[in-house]
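# nightly structure sweep
# worker-07 picked up a monomer target from the shared queue
# config: single-sequence mode, recycle default, output format = structure tokens
# input follows
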Amino acid sequence: MAPLPPNSTPRYKVEYTVNGESHDYQLRTAASPAAVGTFIGALLAALAPELYQTTIGTVSFAADNSNIFLPVVTGAEGLIAGTGSGAYEQKAWYIDFIGRSSLGRRWRLAMFGIRTLAGDFRYAAGENASVTATIAVLNAFTPSLVAIDGGTVTVYPYANAGVNAYWQRALRP
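# output follows
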């Protein structure tokens, strides 16, 4: 498949802090800021038992065909989920939810701050109640949640976990 421009759909950038580090992820959707705020709250509530303390910061929006993100009020700003903080090396640990759009493009949402990596770096369907609940929340947000091609996303019934190579190198002394 030919590459698509990254600004082909409206998107929200969600900034968050976990284990003393700032991160962000993008959600592709044309939903209202209030609907996105409700979704972020449900996502965090489902995944909270598996997260170190995660605090949502600014949420910004970029319209389709624009690369300019402007802050919006979603109601999710300041939300806190999870507890405690991980060891220094756990700053690089993440969970990755993956799926595919109805038009065939890959989709993913990765979040840092996961407490465990699973025995084989994958949470299979039903293996972890919080991960299973989070996948249900992601799938429930369709048809609002879309991939880069604008197609509705179906999230796979498993999630991958791992150690991010960039953060692994950044944490080395």
